[in-house]
């Protein structure tokens, strides 16, 4: 379990990944995003998560470039993630998509590259491309996103390299207990997107009571719950105050009873698509 903002988890290939990062889902290109990235890095974040489909890699890259210039940090102090979109899940198309993301971000390599969704009949070829990129030393780690247990088993059946990360929707209404256990058993790091359920959980009475007990916000309680489950988390915000608040998680701990209360909120409810039944 991480104990401060720059603490890391170690992936099965030995690469260290920050346990908390900034997500930029649906944040448009532009100065607001550039400033959000700079604010996060200035306040100690070292992980930034984007994706080709977000169409904001250029602004993320600009924010990183300016933050490095102003802070004296080096590129290898940061952990940058992007993802290949569904339309590019062929072998050659995935290779080209990776280079396209690098070009937009203005980077020479990514720390983590993910297959965004398990499109049936396509993700194995994409995984073969990710293995090639990894074996060529052009990316530090590779993984998947939104994969269920049977998708992971299918990939691993033919893979030369096991996925290092699986980024999935994970929050108190979707605790993914079986997937979390499987991931730990297989040494695949689970990472939470939409950890706050796009804000829908902020008025939950159980969470509000626990937050009051801890003297923290509901968002901080949920993110702390992620951390105590060993799940990497990437809350999204463009507001400086919220970016700082989301990282203030290391001066309190949820009790076992509080953890169980939050676990008990599970409804198997998604805000995003079902990985077994989606149409993009």
TrEMBL record:
Domain NADP-dependent oxidoreductase residues, every copy: 24-266
Entry keyword Oxidoreductase: yes
Lineage top rank: taxon: Bacteria
Gene3D superfamilies, sorted: NADP-dependent oxidoreductase domain (3.20.20.100)
Keywords on record: NADP, Oxidoreductase
Similarity comment: family membership: Belongs to the aldo/keto reductase family.
Protein name, entry field: Aldo/keto reductase
Species of provenance: Cohnella yongneupensis
């Amino acid at each position: 379990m991480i104990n401060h903002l720059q603490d890391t988890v170690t992936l099965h290939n030995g690469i260290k990944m920050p346990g908390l990062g900034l997500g930029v889902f649906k944040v448009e290109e532009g100065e607001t995003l550039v400033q959000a990235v700079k604010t996060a890095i200035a306040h100690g974040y070292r992980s930034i998560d984007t994706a080709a489909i977000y169409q904001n890699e250029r602004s993320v890259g600009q924010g990183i470039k300016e933050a490095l210039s102003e802070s004296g940090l080096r590129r290898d102090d940061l952990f940058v993630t992007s993802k290949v979109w569904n339309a590019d899940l062929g072998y050659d198309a995935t290779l080209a998509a990776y280079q396209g993301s690098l070009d937009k971000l203005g980077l020479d390599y990514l720390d983590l590259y993910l297959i965004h969704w398990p499109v049936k009949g396509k993700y194995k070829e994409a995984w073969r491309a990710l293995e090639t990129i990894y074996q060529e030393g052009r990316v530090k780690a590779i993984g998947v996103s939104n994969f269920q247990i049977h998708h992971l088993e299918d990939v691993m059946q033919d893979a030369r390299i096991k996925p290092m990360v699986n980024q999935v929707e994970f929050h108190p209404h979707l605790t993914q207990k079986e997937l979390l256990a499987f991931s730990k058993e297989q040494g695949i790091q689970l990472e939470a997107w939409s950890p706050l359920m796009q804000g829908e959980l902020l008025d939950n009475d159980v969470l509000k009571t626990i937050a009051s007990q801890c003297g923290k916000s509901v968002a901080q309680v949920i993110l702390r719950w992620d951390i105590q489950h060993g799940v990497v988390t990437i809350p999204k915000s463009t507001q400086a105050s919220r970016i700082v608040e989301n990282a203030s998680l290391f001066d309190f701990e949820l009790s076992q009873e509080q953890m169980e209360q939050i676990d008990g909120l599970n409804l198997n409810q998604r805000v995003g698509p079902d990985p077994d039944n989606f149409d993009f």
